[in-house]
Amino acid sequence: MKKIVICTFLTVAAAAVLVNIDDRCATTAPEFSLKNSYAITLRYDKSMGEKTVKAAVIDSYYRSVASSGKIIRWNTSTFPLKVYIQDSADVPEYYREIVMSAYQAWQRASEGLVKFEFVESPSEADMKCYFKNTDNKKSIGVHSFTISGNRITDSTIIFNKTDEKNHSLDSKQLFSSALQEIGHSLGLTGKSASIYDVMYPIGTKFNTEITARDLKTLALVYATVPDITNVALSNSERANLFTVSEILSTLNTPVGNDTKNLDEVVANDISTHLALAEQYRRRAEYEKASREYQAVAQMKSDRRSKSEVYYEIAVMYLDAEEFSNAKSCAEIAMATDANDLTDTLPALIDYYTKRSNSAIEQLETILKQNPYNKHAYKLLCQIYRDKHHENLLNATIRKYGKTAGEEE
Question: Pick from 202, 220, 249: which residue ends a domain?
């Protein structure tokens, strides 16, 4: 029997693109609202067209999960998974409640794609959560699968009782960490390019909402025949699922319009432009999505808000691996608002285009000038982890961890 520890670190992505916007006159009400723009498919199977699957792959980090080697996930026929959360007198009462609420958040956000049942004994649990102080206080939680052959026998998450200063864990940080470790335990073992996703590596207090990208990745993982699972899938269960290669092959399939003609929708407010942008983004119509995002940016009154919109456009282009557009966007984002996030954009583009040495040099310069830049710090740590430069990683943590590594 062997234990595999899954620690997935994600990197922040940011940039934007400037495109022309057609003049429009608002004469009719939109067909959908901002809320509807985030509606997503939470179950994929072979009954769906290649274009639908491709749009989900592009707007997720499934490729990163698949690149980690093997798809490890639970057989949905065994849901709800039984979860044990230690009731320890050595930690505040809210610890257990927060971890429990994180499981409930995944179940609720996935609309029941994943389900859990809480039990009082670890012997009857599939997933076990404990509160123990470990040697690594920089990470609130760590997840591991116990695997025998190609079978998951259980999943364990250990949360530190205290932080590096021996203080009780901040509730938001614990919740963020719990969401991430539960994501690992469900099979999300890859990298996300977005700092907003729950699966972003270095825990932050604001990663407390499961995003559409998190959910799309989860849905695609559970639409894939697993290499390792808890109960072998039957032939009928496997027949309607994809292999990794089948899902990735959809990237060569163009994504066109469906039955709704979005070009006929007239937008005159931020919500409708955002809704259009998200719909075009799902269809991989990036120029049209960029046009709608930029319309939102033009309706914003301050530079920082405009820069945040440009950030979303950049994530879209990075997900689509259109790096030349992302590079152009970075220049625009920096011109729009110079801040800690936009300062890291050139290094980020270098990182994504396999020029890690250049990215490292830029990030080290940024941190020397501004040791509080958490975006530069996180990206630099990520690069060192990817390159297995443990000495440089530890030196960076020692030097900048107290300034840039902690959220206020």
Answer: 249
Which of the two residues, 193 and 131, has the higher pLDDT score?
Answer: 131
Task: Give domain status of residue 107, yes or no.
Answer: yes
Examine the pLDDT at 219 and tell me if it is beyond 90: yes
Considering the domain boundaries, does residue 5 fall inside one? no
Torsion over CA: 306, 312, 315, 316 (sign): negative
Mark whether 113 and 245 lie in a shared domain. yes
264 DSSP assignment: G
Q: Would strands 141-148 and 116-119 be described as parallel, antiparallel, or unpaired?
A: unpaired
Average pLDDT score over the chain: 81
Domain boundary at 249, 283, 307, which?
A: 249
| Sequence-separated contacts (24+) of 206-210 with Cβ below 8 Å | 206/172, 206/176, 206/407, 207/176, 207/179, 207/180, 208/172, 208/175, 208/176, 208/179, 210/105, 210/106, 210/109, 210/110, 210/179
pLDDT higher at 331 or 252: 331
* Chain segment 61-100, per-residue pLDDT in tens: 898 899 877 899 999 999 999 999 999 888 998 999 999 9
Q: How many domains does the chain fold into?
A: 2
In a domain, 297, yes or no: no
The span from the first CA to the last CA of the chain, in angstroms, equals 42
Average pLDDT over every residue of 246-259: 67
Predicted confidence (pLDDT) per residue in 303-325, tens digit: 988 888 887 888 788 777 888 88
What's the whole-model pTM score? 0.59
Q: For residue 380, what are the domain limits?
A: 339-408
Q: Half-sphere exposure of residue 171, counting CA atoms within 13 Å on the CB side?
A: 8
Does residue 76 form part of some domain? Answer: yes
Specify the CATH number for the domain of residue 132: 3.40.390.10
**Are the CB atoms for 11 and 382 separated by under 8 Å?**
yes
